[in-house]
Amino acid sequence: MAGASRCAGRGGYRRYDESTATRLDEAGALLIDRWNGDLRRLREEAEADIARISKLLQEFPGIGPTGAGIFLREAQKVWPEARPYTDKLTIRGARASGLPESPEGLADLVAGNDFANLAAALVKVARDPALLEE
After folding, report:
1. What is the distance between the terminal CA atoms of the chain, rounded to a whole angstrom?
2. Disulfide: which of 23, 56, 90, 125 matches 61 by Cβ 3.0-4.6 Å?
3. Which of 6, 4, 47 is nearest to 29 (CA)?
4. What is the pLDDT along the chain (134 residues), one digit of tens a residue?
5. Segment (H or E) for 67
6. Are 75 and 81 in contact (CB under 8 A)?
7. CA 16, chain centre distance (Å)
8. What pTM, to 2 d.p., does this model score?
């Protein structure tokens, strides 16, 4: 636990407590013990199946469906097999923007690797629809 607390403190993260440090240590131990410290091995274990990747991610302490979704939304930039991945926030941003609400419909709007950027932008719109007015 001391390692996670020390790293969080050095990183400038001030809002953590002992339970956060414990979860970080447990998550790190799981990653090292099960996947030799490499999330690509988690992906391989799941055979690149997005639902299975999500389920495996949720084995990390403190990671639920939302956290797994955030990971997949961001990881699709470097894990093409995760593309096109959308979550509730992405879809809410698409709806607010008048764009297609299906992953495939959104994917048709951009080139492959740009989908992660589109998803990130739509999340920003979902959180702050006023961005559409600027």
Report:
1. 45
2. 23
3. 4
4. 455 555 555 555 555 567 788 888 899 999 999 999 999 999 999 998 999 999 999 999 999 999 999 999 999 999 988 999 999 999 999 999 999 999 999 999 999 789 999 999 999 999 999 999 96
5. helix 65-75
6. no
7. 20
8. 0.79
